[in-house]
Amino acid sequence: MLFNSYEFIFLFLPLTILGYFFLNHQGWKGAAKAWLVVASLFFYSWWNVIYLPLILFSMLFNYIIGSSLAKLSSSPNPTRRLLLIAGISGDLVLLGYFKYADFFIGNINLLFSTHFSLLRLTLPLAISFFTFQQIAYLVDAYQAKAQEYDWLNYALFVSFFPHLIAGPIVHHREMMPQFASPENKSWNYENVSRGLFLFFTGLFKKVVIADTLAGWASFGFDQASSLSLLEAWMVSLSYTFQIYFDFSGYSDMALGAALMFNIRLPINFNSPYKARNIQEFWRRWHMTLSRFLRNYLYIPLGGNRHGEAKLYRNLIITFLLGGLWHGAAWTFVFWGFLHGLALVIHRLWQKTGLRMNQVLAWLVCFNFVNFSWVFFRAQSWPEALKVIKGMLGFSGIVLPAGLAGKLGFLAPAGVLFGEFTLQSPARAALLLAVSLALVLFWRNSMELEKDFTPGLRQAVWVGAMALVAILSLTGISEFLYFNF
C-alpha cells in the first residue's frame, strides 16, 4: 500500500490509529500491539501477499538469533560471535538471493560466455530495509545494547508500517521504549496535529513537485534519443530535485504517520542540498543509512584507525557496497564509487589546509551530486552517457527559436535555434528554479515542525496543502526508494 493513495489516507491510516488507541484505552495493551502488527503486515501484503511468509520468516529467524544472543550474554565470546555471524549471514543470503542472484548470473554469463538461465525473481518489497534494520538489531544484541524476549514486541519493531517500506532504519532502543511508555498509549492532540502537518507536507512534496518533475526526467532518460545542452541539464536537474522531494516527502510522511501514534522516528533527511562538501552531504542525506554504513561497515573495516591509505580504502569499499545496496546494476556501483572517491578527495583537500569560498564550495558539491545522480537514475550505461554527453555540450546547443533575433551571432559557433524535444521547457525551468529556491532558502519540514503550534492558521495551512495534494492524486506513483 502506498502512502500517496486514497486507500491509505482515507481508510487504512485513520482506522489503524483509531483501533490502536481504542484498544489501549480499554486497557488491552497486548491487543493494541497485535492490532498494529496485523495492520502493518496487511499494509505490507497489499503490494503482493506472496511475500508475506518471507518477511515473517525473516522476523522469526532474527528474533530467535537475537534473543539467543541476549540469553548467552555470559557465554564465551566465540560462541556468541559464531551465532552473530550465522544470523548476519542468513540475512545476507536472503537479501542476496532475491536482489542479486540475477545480477551475478548475468555477469558470469558475460564473463565466461556461459548460458545459465536467469531466475527473474521479483524483488520483495522493503527487503533491503528490513534486512539492514535486523542486522543492526543483531549487532546491538551482541553488544548488549538491545534485548527482546517478546515476539510481539519484536514483530512490531520490524513491521511498524511508517518505517517498514523505505526507512528510516531504526534501532530497537530508539523505538520500543516509546511503545512501552504509558503516556504514549493515549491520544495526543498535539502529536496528531504535528503528524498531520508532516504527513501532508510530505504528500505535497511527492505528488505536486516530485511527480511533476518525474515527467521531464523520464522523458530525457527513457525516451529521448539525444539531448542538447540545455535539455540535458533540465533533465538531470529534474531528477536531482525529483529524488530530493520524493525521498524527503516519504521521510516526512513516515515521521508524520508515526507521530500520530506518539512515536518519534529518527530524522532521515536534513536539507542535504545545502551541503558545502560531500561529507556534509552524507550527514544530511538518508541519515540512518549513512549511520548504518558507518557503524556496521566502515568502522568494522577499520575506519580511520590504521593509517590514511586504509582509511581511503575503507571509504571506497563502504560506498561501493552502499551503491550495490541501492540496486543490482553496475551503474549503482559506479555511483557509489564516485561518492567514495569524492570523500577521499575531500579528505585530501582538508589535509592541504586550503579553504574554498563557501558559495564555490556549495556549487562544486551540488554539481557533483547532480552529475552522479545521472548514473543512479540511468537504466544502462548508454542512457547515462547520453545525458552526460548532453550536459557537456557534445550533443549540440539549442536555444529557443524566439532568441534567434537577439543571439543569432552565436550561430557560427554551432548554436542552433529551434524547438526543444523536451515538452514545456519554460515550465520545467520555472519549476526547477522554484525547487532550487525551496531547498536552499526555505526551512525544512523538521525545522518547521519544531516551531509548529496547533491553531486555526496552521489548520488552514495544512488543510490547503492536503487539499491540493489529494486533488493531485490523479495517478498513483511509487516512491523512488521503494525500488531499493
UniProtKB/TrEMBL annotation:
It is a multi-pass membrane protein. Keywords: Acyltransferase, Cell membrane, Membrane, Transferase, Transmembrane, Transmembrane helix. It is found in: Cell membrane. GO terms for biological process: alginic acid biosynthetic process. It holds the Pfam family MBOAT. One of its GO terms (cellular component) is plasma membrane. InterPro entries: Ac/AlaTfrase_AlgI/DltB, AlgI, MB_O-acyltransferase, MBOAT_fam. One of its GO terms (molecular function) is acyltransferase activity. The chain crosses the membrane at residues 6-23, 35-61, 81-98, 118-139, 151-170, 315-338, 358-376, 397-418, 424-442, 462-482. Belongs to the membrane-bound acyltransferase family. PANTHER family: ACYLTRANSFERASE, TEICHOIC ACID D-ALANYLTRANSFERASE. This is Alginate O-acetyltransferase, putative.
